[in-house]
Amino acid sequence: MSSENQFLAQRREKARNLADLGVKLYSNTFKPADRISELRPKAEQLESQQKEEGGANYSIAGRIMAMRKFGKAAFITLADATGQMQVYVRKDSVGEEQFGAFKKYDIGDIVGARGHLFKTKTGEPSIHAEMITMVSKSLRPMPEKWHGLTDVETRYRQRYVDLLVTPESKETFRKRVDIIRLVREYLSDRGFLEVETPMMQPVPGGATAKPFKTYHNALNMDLYLRIAPELYLKRLLVGGFEKVFEINRNFRNEGLSTRHNPEFTMLEFYQAYATYDDLIDLTEDMIASICQEVRGTLKISYQGVDVDLSPPWKRLTMDEALTEIGSIDPEILADDEKVIAYAKKLGIKLEAAAGAGKAKTELFELLVEEKLVDPTFITSYPTEVSPLARRNEDNPTVTDRFELFITGREIANAFSELNDPIDQKERFEKQIAERGDDDEVHPELDVDYIRALEYGMPSAAGEGIGIDRLVMLLTDAPSIRDVILFPHMKPEERMLKEQTAAEQTDDD
To answer: Looking at the 3D structure of the chain, how many domains does it have?
Structure first.
């Protein structure tokens, strides 16, 4: 029998013994009246070995995180959602029957306790229990106290255990909640209306990623999990809403990495009668103010690298970045044939229809992107790679668009919106032609979106911010899986088979 199965067998035997004693293993009657975070300050005010005057009784419930038994007495550490507190259990205080059952409790069990506050002679705020009861029996042992859940794959796969034993993980997700709340408050305070748009769409649009495809029986039609809410949010601008935002899930049927999960959270917001320059100012102020609120400073460290979020942030056009950081001669950038040849010389594979704009974008990703540590706005993206952005009036080969980079990764993408239905239709058709036939998803023209533009959409600017990446930055998390409660992973059985096959290959 494996050690894991042995532990499970022991736990089940204890559970049967408790049931034989008449203990309800999964009770639904104990209701704690107090939270540990509220009781600790009261107990901390007491002197060592002092009992709180007045004989007040408090009741808490939580998971046993530690246990020390001394014959007719024991100390346990209980943890609820707000903190941890020591509980002192004596046979002569809780009675022989309760104490007899209590002796069979395990670390990991969820229990309820009622008693008065006191402080031990070592100065530990505690509850002296006058009643102790089982709430929920744990049949699996907790990870070993001093090592916790060290296996990264297990942490992601069994997040419920990770949260129990890794305080830093729990704090990361508390901060995630705070960050999303602060984003909502920031935009709502500035007149943006939070909306919800379809997660299943008849035409995948708003980005060029590969979508997840499904089928709706009643409507007898294919539907796609959205890759972006953009086209629906801009329909709302047509309908008369002038400031809208949505925080919700996007889905992209592509690879996984430390920066990518197939299901991820995006903020998208749109403002009528605004330009991308307005959104640069808003983005800088919003992220800086959220960082100050969450971290208490604008000078933070991310994975050992110092990052300064103090405004104003650096702004470069793509050509300037390729010259100053990528060390490409401006003469090459000014000649379409030369820039394409330069990209190919560096090993960049370009499709036959790709132009200089695509070549510049690929060169930027290769030579510049990872070097942008402090926040930097990159502007003037080529029109070729910006099918939904407004052309720059002085230079139609580029668009009024920016991407924000921090710690070498994209955090935000924004542009002044294209609202010319004729130009938009032509760009969609060109994009579809370049993409060609797809065995899984046949590219389609979003005729309804063109129709919406034909009614007239006001001049506007819109932006998308990756919430997961923003949380990674502000919590110093190395992987997107560290900030998503339940990241997508390979099935456990398949992963084990692959590991076994790899080990056998190594042995050979």
So the answer is: 2
In this structure, what CATH number is given to the domain that contains residue 106?
2.40.50.140
Q: Would residue 44 be called left, alpha or beta, if left means φ above 0 and alpha means ψ between -120 and 50 degrees? A: alpha
Residue 98 DSSP class? H
Is the same domain home to 284 and 424?
A: yes
* Rg, the chain, Cα only: 29
What is the chain's pLDDT, residue by residue, as a tens digit (508 residues)?
A: 566 788 889 999 999 999 999 999 999 999 999 999 999 999 999 998 888 887 779 999 999 999 999 999 999 999 999 999 999 999 999 999 999 999 999 999 999 999 999 999 999 999 999 999 999 999 998 887 545 566 788 889 999 999 998 899 999 999 999 999 999 999 999 999 999 999 999 998 877 788 999 999 999 999 999 999 999 999 999 999 999 999 999 999 988 888 889 999 999 999 999 999 999 999 999 999 999 999 999 999 999 999 999 999 999 999 999 999 999 999 999 999 999 999 999 999 998 889 999 999 999 999 999 999 999 999 999 999 998 899 999 999 999 999 999 999 999 999 999 999 999 999 888 878 877 665 555 678 899 999 999 999 999 999 999 999 999 999 999 999 999 999 998 887 776 676 666 666 666 5
Residue 182: what are its φ and ψ, rounded to 5°? -65, -35
- Secondary structure E strands in 219-368: 221-225, 243-251, 263-272, 299-302, 305-308, 314-317
As a whole number of angstroms, the distance between CA 477 and CA 100 comes to 45
DSSP 8-state secondary structure symbol assigned to residue 331: H
132 and 239 in a single domain? The answer is no
**Structural domain of 490:** 164-313+420-501
Q: Which residues pair with 224 in a beta bridge?
A: 201, 213
Q: Phi and psi of 409, rounded to 5°? A: -135, 150
* 80/187 same-domain check: no
Contacts of 288 (CB under 8 A, 6+ apart): 298, 309, 310, 311
Alpha carbon separation from 425 to 229, 378, 381, 488 (Å, rounded): 19, 27, 20, 36
Is 304 inside any structural domain?
A: yes
Run of H or E including 505:
helix 492-507
Neighbours of 431 (CB within 10 A): 15
Give domain status of residue 404, yes or no: no
Return the structure tokens found at 404.
């924000």
Phi, psi dihedrals of residue 34, rounded to the nearest 5°: -130, 160
Residue 12 falls within a domain, yes or no? yes
Q: What is the DSSP string of 361-420?
A: HHHHHHHTGGG--S-EEEE--BGGG-TTBPBPSS-TTBBSEEEEEETTEEEEEEEEBP--
| Cβ–Cβ < 8 Å for 269, 244 | yes
**Is the Cβ–Cβ distance between 27 and 135 less than 8 Å?**
yes
Q: What is the pTM of this model?
A: 0.90
